[in-house]
Each structure stands twice: as structure tokens, then as C-alpha cells.
Amino acid sequence: MKKILNIIASPRADESFSSKLGYAIIEQIKEANPGSTVQTRDLNLTPFPHVEVVHLAAFYAPEDSYTPESKAAVQHSNEAIQEIMDADILLISTPMWNFSIPSVLKAWIDHIARAGVTFQYSEKGPVGLIKGKKVYIALASGSFYSAEPAQSLDFAAPYLKTFLGFLGLTDLSLFRVEGTGIPGAGDISLEKAIATIVL
Ligand SMILES: Cc1cc2nc3c(=O)[nH]c(=O)nc-3n(C[C@H](O)[C@H](O)[C@H](O)COP(=O)(O)O)c2cc1C
Fold first, then answer.
1. Residue 187's domain spans which residues?
2. What is the CATH number of the domain that holds 53?
3. Which atom of ligand 1 lies at the shortest distance from residue 100's CA?
4. Among 21, 112, 113, 127, which residue carries the largest CB count within 10 Å?
5. How many separate domains does the chain show?
6. What is the DSSP letter of 142?
7. CA of residue 150 to ligand 1 center, whole Å
């Protein structure tokens, strides 16, 4: 039995190829691990705010110095981090937008990167503090990036892998649904993508 945290970044709800690929991953996890549970965090339904000074001040302040304002500001971050800590598996379903990720996902990322909580700097460099979790990424793109000539234009997959690895989340598998922008090709691309899933 696994606890799955399902992070959804596409605003396209039932039409979203990345979300559909993500749900196919969930189905396979459930088949392999009966009784698994899913907590879904749709970043468009409950968006995280852009990190502002009030959030930064709270991130770096000791808890006993919190004001009501900083307590409220750090709550999004605490909740998001707790959700990850409670999960065995983190699934991120996201579109590629403008060669990278949608800003709702970046806002979530800015709330989970907390010095002393999810990473720390040591004499040997940065150390990720989130351990022992499996990560799956379901990435949808209108065009093709898994091979040249456009591979080097994909800033979404390398960025997510680098960032999550920085937090200690290094056991990561990424699956792509590509070419959704080609008229009529979306569903076939999704089928092909689902066939590539290996847990
Ligand atoms: C604002 C925006 C930016 C996009 N940028 C890219 C891009 O840089 N490269 C690409 O291949 N497709 C791009 N697309 C197409 C999406 O990646 C594609 O439609 C994908 O299927 C969206 O994921 P979803 O179906 O999960 O919403 C973009 C779409 C939107 C709406």
C-alpha cells in the first residue's frame, strides 16, 4: 500500500494529456500496490501565491518569533512540505509551457524549497533532506523533445530533475506524452506514452 501525492499543473482538467498520463501511472501503482491512496493537489484550483517578502521573512525566522502575519505566510509552505513528507510517492503531472513549466508549478516549488527543512548547505555543498520517496513525472508537450533536434530546448525535464534531486528526490522516472499539438495526434500520443510506463 502506497500513499501517492498527485500534483497537477495543467489547468485543462479532463482534457489534460499530462493529467491523463499521470492517472495512468496511478492506476498502475494501484494495481501493483492494492489499497494505495491518492491525495490530489490541483495547483490551478488551489494556487500557491508568488513568494513575497512576507513569505521569505517567515521561511527564515525561528518559529518562536512568528507574528500572526508570518504564521499565515508560512502555512502554504508547511502544508505543501507536510504533504510530500506524508507520501511514499510523488507524482507531478505537468505540461511544457514555453519550454519550461507553468508558473503555478514554479510557485509550488518556491514554497517547498526551504533551507533547513527540505535542503541544507554543508561544507561539501547542498544536501537534500527529503529521503526515501519515489517520484514520477508525467510531462506533456505539443512538440517532441525526447530526441534531437529539439532535445536541448526542453528546460522542463532537466529543471524538474535538478530541482527535485536538490531536495534529495533522486529516484525519479519521467514519462512523456509528446506531439499533442499535431492535429488529431493527441490520443495516439497518449496511448504510446501509457505503453512506456514502467514503475
Ligand atoms: C501557454 C502555452 C505554452 C506552451 N508552450 C509549449 C512549448 O514550449 N513547447 C511545446 O512543445 N508545447 C507547448 N505548448 C503545448 C502544450 O505543451 C501541449 O498542449 C500539452 O499537451 C499541454 O499539456 P496538457 O494537455 O496537460 O494541458 C504550450 C501550450 C500553452 C497553452
1. 3-195
2. 3.40.50.360
3. 8
4. 21
5. 1
6. S
7. 14
